[in-house]
Amino acid sequence: MSKVRVRFAPSPTGPLHIGGVRTALYNFLFAKKNDGKIILRIEDTDQARFVSGAEDYIVDSLKWCGIDFDESVKKHGDYGPYRQSERKSIYHQYAQSLIDSGHAYYAFDTPEDLENMRERMKKAGVPSPQYNHITRSNMKNSLSLSNDEVQARIKNNEKFVIRIKMPRNEEVKIHDLIRGWVVVNTNNMDDKVIYKSDGMPTYHLANVVDDYLMKITHVIRGEEWLPSAPLHVLLYTYLGWENEMPKFAHLPLILKPDGNGKLSKRDGDRLGFPVFPIDWINPETQEKSSGYKESGYDPEAFINMLAFLGWNPGTPQEIFSMNDLIKEFSLERVGKAGAKFDFDKTKWFNQQYLRAKDNNILAQELQEILKKNNINVELDYVTRVCHELKERATFVYDMWSEGRYFFEAPKSYDQKTIRKKWKQETPEILLSLKERLVKLNEFSSENVEADFKEILNQYSIGMGQLLPAFRLALTGIGMGPSLFNIAEIIGKDETIARIDSAIQNIS
Predict the structure, then answer these.
(1) Active centre residues (catalytic)
(2) 147 occurs within a structural domain
(3) Between the N and C ends of the chain, which has fewer C-beta atoms within 10 Å?
């Protein structure tokens, strides 16, 4: 068997959807599992839909995801160029070969001619008119025109496309590694354009030629390309490459959370979650679409989540590093049915990765957020805060937004807690607690708790009669992690100062 070579071949027509990232990921995992190589090829034959900045966005997105390529537009190999617009001179010879062998033909039809054909067919009762073996004889092409007229039109620089000549009533069989055998009758297929009037190939011809020349062994792509696979099989056959044809695997769709249709940007906007890996700014409208990176997601958590949208390991395990995924991945365990996107599960994955991350690394990330909020504290202090808050956080920024009392004294106090827990006698009890805390030589969580319990005994009250007020004084809110740990971290002086401030501002 030839060394495994796969490719991810996006078009720079906009931002990279998470469905595209998953396709890249499965290609990457398959290649690495089989000690093969993965190629990034930019398929920019559709110049009319080209979007400025999209290619760089694709490259940057995949880099953030940790998907590395062995050959690409940034890392040249032996099979370049890796941008189809730079391979323009390659394709014409293969289109001409198909014409010479009788498997393709010139078509000179104008847009008006095509529209008239569709109208005629609809009036004849054909619901979905096609350019095929039935209609081609009444159109302007090299099958219906004389050779002299064809050559005259070409000599006069008349615009033309090249269409594949689809055979009549033949079965095209494809063995898909996920779906098994797929059989399509050519009577249900049209004469697709394979070479455009602008001198560029369409996707169909370009991807077949490039896959052959780049020695691609497996084509792993989304199921939206399954209807095109029979055409690609025919092109391999007509070009004499059937023995070098790659194996095909068509991945299931990523579905909306309700399972009703393909996940789209609109769904993300409507339900409040990203569908792109990193932020995308539309170059025409300047509209920003949020990405997982800027929303605070760990790239490994994001990738772990994506891996499970269509694949499962066959075990209860859900947390996989990239190396784990490479080891366990197989196309045999990719499902045929679409996978419903679950945003809550996505957040769960991030939470698990955050909890497992080293506190020092978390502290460095949190420190950057603090600096943006004009708060400068030592890394050791931030590390202690991370240790205390990580079990309660989903994102690093949660430790700032929900734990800002570690970095600044409360400026306000939760009114609900005040109404329920701040009684007439509370200031007196807090002052007694303060007096004990002032005398502590070692201001530890254990010692603060011991003094706190002594006050409970002194006043013959329960935990619930003092703890909420004490928490309110230190944090301004009614809930959070261990209050005694909070006191130890912010320190003796700050604890005393906050008790004084609460008594003054609440009483």
Answers:
(1) 265
(2) yes
(3) N
- Residues 350 and 286 placed together within one structural domain of the fold: yes
| pLDDT tens per residue, range 384-402 | 999 999 999 999 999 999 9
The one-letter amino acid at 84: Q
The whole-angstrom separation of Cα 385 and Cα 419 is 29
Residue 328 belongs to some domain of the structure:
yes
Q: Are residues 483 and 346 both part of a single domain?
A: no
Same domain as 458, residue 383: no
| 27: Cα separation from own chain's centroid | 14
Determine the Cα–Cα distance for residues 291 and 58; give it in Å rounded to an integer: 13
Q: Which residues contact 215 (CB under 8 A, 6 or more apart)?
A: 2, 5, 79, 244
Amino acid 1: pLDDT? 55
- pLDDT, residue 235, reads 98
- In this predicted model, what pLDDT tens digit does every residue of 78-97 receive, in sequence order? 999 999 999 999 999 999 99
Distance CA 232, CA 220 (A): 14
Q: Are 307 and 345 in contact (CB under 8 A)?
A: no
The last residue of one of the domains, among 174, 195, 216, is: 195
CA atoms of 229 and 219, how far apart (whole Å): 10
**Structural domain boundaries, residue 422:** 415-506
Co-location of 9 and 53 in the same domain = yes
The model's pTM: 0.92
362 and 349 assigned to the same domain: no
Q: What confidence score (pLDDT) does residue 49 get? A: 85
Q: Please tell me the predicted confidence (pLDDT) of residue 507.
A: 73
The helices-and-strands tally (H runs, E runs) of the chain is 20, 13
Total domains, the chain: 5
For the CA atoms of 230, 235, 237, 243, what is the dihedral angle to 10 degrees? -90
Residue 118 is part of a domain; what is its CATH number? Answer: 3.90.800.10
Extract the tokens encoding 473.
């004084």
Polymer length in residues for the chain = 507
For residue 320, what is the domain's CATH number? Answer: 1.10.1160.10
Please give the Cα distance from 335 to 254 (Å, whole number).
11
Which is nearest to 165 in space by CA: 99, 97, 108?
99
Measured CA to CA, the distance from residue 407 to residue 87 in angstroms comes to: 57
For residues 274-281, give the mean pLDDT: 95
Confidence bin at 354 (pLDDT 50/70/90): very high
Q: Which amino acid is at 253?
A: L
Among 275, 259, 278, 276, which residue's Cα sits nearest to residue 267? 275
Both tokens of residue 453?
């319990």
Same domain flag for 24 and 36 = yes
Cα torsion through 145, 148, 151, 153, rounded to 10:
-60
d(CA 434, CA 496): 6
| Residue 95 shares a structural domain with residue 71 | no
Asked whether residue 248 falls in the same domain as residue 285, the answer is no
